[in-house]
Amino acid sequence: MIRRSYRKSLGVGLREILAVSVAVAVCTWGSAVLGEDSCVTCHAALPDALGAPVEAEKAGVHAAAGITCADCHGGDPTDEGPTAMEPEKGFVGKPSHAGTPKFCGRCHSNRAYMRQRKPELSTDQEDTYYTSVHGKRLRQGDERVAVCTSCHGIHGILPVSNAKSPVYPLNVARTCARCHADPAYMAPYKIPTNQFAQYQQSVHAEILFGRRDLSAPTCNDCHGNHGAYPPGATSVAAVCGQCHAVNMDLFVASPHKKAFDQLGLPECVTCHGNHSIQRTSDEMAGTSGVAVCITCHTEGSTGYKGAAEIGKTLSELASLLSEAKQQVSLAERAGMETLDARYLLQEANEALVQSRNLVHSSDPEQVKKAAAEGQKKAATALEDATTAIEEVSKRKRMLAIPLSLIGLLILLLYLKLRQIEGAQRGLAS
Amino acid sequence: MRRVINWFDDRLHISALIDFLSHKSVPTHHHSIWYYFGGVSLLLFVVQIFTGLLLLFYYRPGPDSAFESIQFLMARVPFGWLVRSVHSWGANLMVLAVFIHMFSVFFMKAYRPPNELTWMSGFVLLGLSMAFGFSGYLLPWNELAFFATKVGTDIVGAVPVIGHWILMLLRGGEDVSGTTIGRFFGIHVALLPLFTGAVLFFHLALIQRHGITPPISKVGQPSPSLPFYPNFMIRETMVWLAVIGVLITLSTFLPWELGLKADPFKPAPAGIHPEWYFTFMSQTLKYLPPSILGFEGEQVGIIGFGVAGFLLFLTPLLDWQAKRGNDSRFFTAAGVFALAYVAVLTSLAYLKPY
User: Fold this and answer.
1) In this prediction, what percent of chain B has a pLDDT beyond 90?
2) Which residues, other chains included, contact B25 with Cβ-Cβ below 8 Å and sequence gap of 6+?
């Protein structure tokens, strides 16, 4: 019997001792009789944090791949007693926070091992991690930064493709926000904590969460994942250009690239913002109150004139296209066939999109050239629809002719009937 | 002029026909107006044949050509829009006229002896009119028609024992496809017109044989009548002209839309419904529970409609009172119930489509 004072000095209660005793009994029986993994049989009977991993791990990708507790934590799973966890038996126990990347990297950075287990997975996560802000700070002794388990979880790790995984595209922003949106936690780093709130208001979030379109970017698509790093001022276009390739090419070839780099302006972010990026509008280009061009270009300058020209071109095409769309819809509602007009509208719309992209070239002539095509198509569609609507009115007017003829025939027949029936009545009387 | 008429009369004996028609008479009473609907149905059938033939000049059956050919007809062919619109409106008005004609005959108990076969052939003509509508609905190969046909043939497929066989026969495979359009086209322009022509001839011949029947309430009462020629014929012609006027007005002011081309890989759009004259049946099937007394609810509904239709077909043999010249209240009540049921369920389908 362990004395109360001795138990107190060990810091364990009667309950814990009882649980361990039961666990030892169960695991001895389980391992010996059933030949089971002694880690599982013993820990399954333990309470709280010592028992929970057994159940949690079952749902994970590692358990599914046949990786046992001992594969990560070491020890001897055939030994049914506490001796299974002796350092001599390779037991490493729970890795420290700082040691986690290396702990996971024992397998995940081992090319030969991963080639056998999961060849499609890259093996550079650990190396990349140490290039990230997180990894660099960890090496400097900062134990608050994220390590593998901070994002992927510990036991029961799920593949990225699993919707319940914290790193599934729909969950990434919330996972990052667990630290980055916590002002108290982030206070020592003196960086903003409003990125997640801003991102939620953005067009990217609208597409990702609203439409459930997983191709829309979340944190790691711009910042990287294992090598998470804020893009520098001169690499923003390259980051955005992963998706917006045409706009990136136009921007890089434009005079703005050099000017922005010289001024240290963060390329795309300068006009579009970053985390709270909004859907663009034609008013952003030009010289109106909401136009971004006039932030730098003052009235009378060449840039100002060019911006005004671009803004005017875009708004003219957009307004003509909108008018044409309305007219085509009107013709459709009137029952007219508008297939050709619809094709023209589609082409005009493509020209408008192209013109909007060409804004990134900062060349009013290029924008005007593309818009001119759209203007032509939209005008033809508008004309076709107007003709169709006029045709509807004409048909309605023309209907008066057959209806009059029918009315006249009915009248004549009625008169004839009266004449016949009058004669018949006369004959009868 | 007289000599020309005589020349033709010598060869065609038109005067004998006119003499025959002028000796025919039509009873006149408060319900005489319903007599015009048989003629209106006939007129609309003729309009359908005429406009259908014109459509045949341009229509090309097939999943890659049907929609496009109708589109071409409506957009490029002079008065093509009118022909197609008249054909679509005409089909609906024809089914409406046939329904009115059938219910008027039902309530007048004009199916009583010796008109049993006239009623039965008329019932077959109603079925054929609906079959015309069902087969023609798919032919433009638009979204609405495609999915309505899919649902409609699915319902046919739920008929116990022979359902799947009929479904395969109609669709030409498990799904509505290019084969289905070919089959529906053949049924619509060849099989149904031939069969309808024969039944219609039989129906009209029986009417000529037995004459026009007054309502059962007038049996035993002195019944004034009107010579068929020229009095009733002129009146009927006036009604026909008015119907043609309504038909072209509807076709001009509310032209029949073509909609979007059918895409079998797209999900069914919201608000899919069959032609209005099938909606009371599809709506009933919607309200039925999945299982009734251990049988599949939809199958019970289909069998129910089958039995109801068969009883309607046999009405002249079942209505003993009418056979004796008495007005049967039960059959009148059943008719009112059927009419109210069709009206309420059809309205519900349009007011609460989901």
Assistant:
1) 62
2) B211, B212, B225, B226, B227, B228
Which residue intervals of A143-300 are DSSP H helices? 148-152, 169-180, 183-186, 195-200, 203-205, 219-223, 236-240, 245-253, 255-263, 267-272
Contact A410 B253 (CB under 8 A): no
**B234 backbone dihedrals φ, ψ, rounded to 5°:** -65, -45
In this prediction, residue A414 carries a pLDDT of 97
Q: Which two tokens stand for residue B191?
A: 């099989």
d(CA A203, CA B321) in angstroms, rounded, equals 75
Cα-Cα-Cα-Cα dihedral sign, residues A62, A67, A73, A77: positive
Give the C-alpha separation, A24 to A36, whole Å: 14
Give the minimum alpha-carbon distance from A334 to chain B in angstroms, rounded to a whole number: 8
Chain A environment of B81 (Cβ under 8 Å):
335, 337
d(CA A244, CA A216): 11
Q: How far is B238 from chain A (nearest CA, A)?
A: 5
Report pTM: 0.67
Contact B121, B98 (CB under 8 A): no
Interchain proximity B249–A420, CB inside 8 Å = no
pLDDT at B328: 87
Mean pLDDT of chain B: 91
For B225-269, the pLDDT digits (tens) are 888 888 999 999 999 999 999 999 999 999 888 888 898 888 888
Rounded to whole angstroms, how far apart are CA atoms A103 and A126? 10
DSSP labels, B77-112: STTHHHHHHHHHHHHHHHHHHHHHHHHHHHHTTTTS
- Judged by DSSP in three states, A321 sits in helix
How does DSSP classify residue B261?
B
Cβ contact (<8 Å) for A403 and B71?
A: no
Q: How far apart are CA A21 and CA A47, in angstroms?
A: 12
**Nearest beta carbon to residue B245 from set A335, A406, A421:** A406
Residue B226: which H helix or E strand, with range?
A: strand B225-227
Cα(A278)–Cα(A258) distance, integer angstroms: 25
Tens digit of each residue's pLDDT (9 = 90 or more) over B41-96: 999 999 999 999 999 999 999 999 999 999 889 888 999 999 999 999 999 999 99
Tell me the C-alpha distance between A225 and A148, whole Å.
10
Distance of CA B349 to the CA centre of its chain: 20
Most A CBs within 10 Å, among B85, B235, B253, to test the A interface: B253
Kindly list the distances between the CA atom of residue B267 and the CA atoms of A161, B67, B179, B241, B353, in Å, as whole numbers in the listed order.
Answer: 26, 19, 20, 44, 17
Q: How far apart are CA A156 and CA A151, in angstroms?
A: 13
Across the 429 residues of chain A, what is the mean pLDDT of every consecutive 10-residue run?
A: 43 56 53 67 86 89 92 90 88 92 95 92 94 95 95 94 95 96 95 95 96 94 89 83 94 94 91 93 90 92 95 96 95 82 96 96 96 97 95 92 97 96 88
Q: Which of B74, B92, B85, B133 is nearest to B248 (CA)?
A: B85
Contacts of A399 in chain B (CB under 8 A): 248-249, 252-253
Instruction: Point out the residue among B227, B244, B248 whose CB comes nearest to the CB of A399.
Output: B248
Residue A231: φ, ψ to 5°:
-65, 140
pLDDT for res A304: 95
